[in-house]
Amino acid sequence: MRVSRHGTKANAEPDDRAHNAIARLNALDRSRSEEWAEYVHDGGDGEDEDEDEGLRCGTDSGNGSGSKYSWTKALLVEANVRNNRYRDIASWDHALLPGPYLNASLIPPLPLPASTQPSRPQGQAYIASQAPPPHTFPAFFAHLCAQRVRVLVMLTPLTERGLKKADQYWPSAGGGERSIPVRPTLSSRSAHLFHHQQKQREQQLQQQSGGATSTTRSVNRRILNLPSSDWAVEVLEEQDLSTGPSPSSSSSSSASSPSPRPLPSGTHLQLRRLRLHIETRPSPSECILASQTPSGPSSERAGLQQNLNTTSGSATHDLVQLHLSSWADYGTDSLDTLDILLDWIDHLQLQESSPPSPSPSLSQPPPPIWIHCSAGVGRSGTVIAAHMLRNRNRHLPKPKPNSNELIKMTIPEERDRAFLLADCSLEHEHEADADSTQRLAEVIAVVAYLRRFRPMMVQTPAQLEMVCGALAAATATDGPTG
User: I need a labelling partner for 101 at 20 to 30 A (CA). Which of 123, 141, 217, 246 fits?
Assistant: First the structure.
């Protein structure tokens, strides 16, 4: 596997095994979609509620014995089709977020062998999504709040070679306010119920603390309003990380660098602290309306977590956006850039997800990390796969040479495992090549796991090799030797 560590881009031609692996992964995606299309053609609706529920929980108990991979909600519901940026990129139904439709996939933590003792008891979940079109901003913001997201990673420029790749969902530099008209959606009504519940809890906490409150406001506020949906976005802080955070900054909210390494020349990485505002009207009638939306009371309430800060008539949710705008569509970036980006993600996820007192139960999992590029599959899948494998290597004892535990858990079907790993036999490998082959097998297995929730994750052979390079670097530098 040949991936450039230095410079801004990896230009080496991927080897045949990477090409073959992507071709086989794509063939498995096609077979699943064709099975669903045949089922719909024969009169089915493409879904199995019980099996979908198992898949949503990450158990995949029926997979390989008749469970359905369906695109019914994304491709057969006309209102939802209009919300897709690309007509051929969508989430499997079982991985969609509960609540209003959004082209986003919830990816459960990487499964771990029961015999292992990770240094962190909770695994990390992810959400991979398309770059939201403007008319889906309210649903996007509602899901960010409902999923308690604190770290949002954007991996695409707004335009590339004259083509629009993403829409800007935060206010531009220069201060002031601007508005984007959007259609009213379920999202704002859902937030009203969320606010009503949270306001009651905040009042209880204020009574316990003697009623003390504090508010900090920026002098030159940058706000993007979505008037018809009651949502607004404010930029609290913006930093250019291409040369590292400013060492002279005295702001307590400024980010401290998790890595002394500078980013490679030509890399553009920015950090923005965003605050989502929802103007709420928590009357009993509106709370009832919100709980009786078409998606159903249970799914709506399931997503309404206790994570909004409330004041009279409004509620807010703070998060950090990392924006890497120098990574080309379908392409790769350098391993140095990827390593530093992953360092930032880990650093901010730990920093931003540490809740204020009183602390939640230790059993509460960390919020998912939300990652999007333009379509939410190539660059997003590459970063998620690399992050999963690097953190697994850091927080678990290193597996024995040629251990297949991870592979068997991520590709439980023996037939699929034999098909996807046809080029990864260790029987005739020289010792020098065995580690490389084992890494390739583990990377293919993790990408196959991601594609159980979102098709086409990690699109190109070069992106697959990039993940292999990240795993090789992590294996060389991280983790206990247990």
Answer: 123
- Under DSSP, is residue 54 helix (H, G, I), strand (E, B) or coil? helix
What is the rounded CA–CA span in Å between residue 149 and residue 128? Answer: 12
Structure tokens at 256: 């401290």
CATH for 16-51+61-209+218-244+262-354+366-477, among 3.40.50.10490, 3.30.450.40, 3.30.70.20, 3.90.190.10?
3.90.190.10
In 280-332, beta strands by DSSP E: 309-311, 314-324
In this structure, what are the phi and psi dihedrals at residue 225, rounded to the nearest 5 degrees? Answer: -100, 140
Measured distance CA(345)–CA(322) in Å, rounded: 8
Burial class (CB in 10 A: 0-12, 13-18, 19+), 286: middle
Collect all residues with Cβ–Cβ distance below 8 Å to 128 and sequence separation of at least 6: 104, 105, 107, 371, 372, 376, 377, 380, 381, 384, 450, 453, 454, 457
pLDDT tens digits, 223-258: 998 877 789 999 999 999 987 654 444 444 456 666
pLDDT (tens digit per residue) in 284-309: 333 322 333 333 333 333 333 345 66
Residues in the chain: 482
| Residue 260, preceding peptide bond in cis (omega within 30° of 0) | no
**What residues have CB less than 8 Å from 93, skipping those under 6 apart?**
46, 47, 52, 70, 71, 72, 73, 74
Extended strands (E) in 119-230: 126-129, 151-154, 159-160, 163-164, 176-179, 222-226
Show me where the domains of the chain are located.
16-51+61-209+218-244+262-354+366-477
Structure tokens of 95? 């991985």
Q: What separation in angstroms does the CA of 235 have from each of 54, 127, 270, 296, 401?
A: 39, 22, 13, 33, 48
CB atoms within 10 A of CB 251: 11
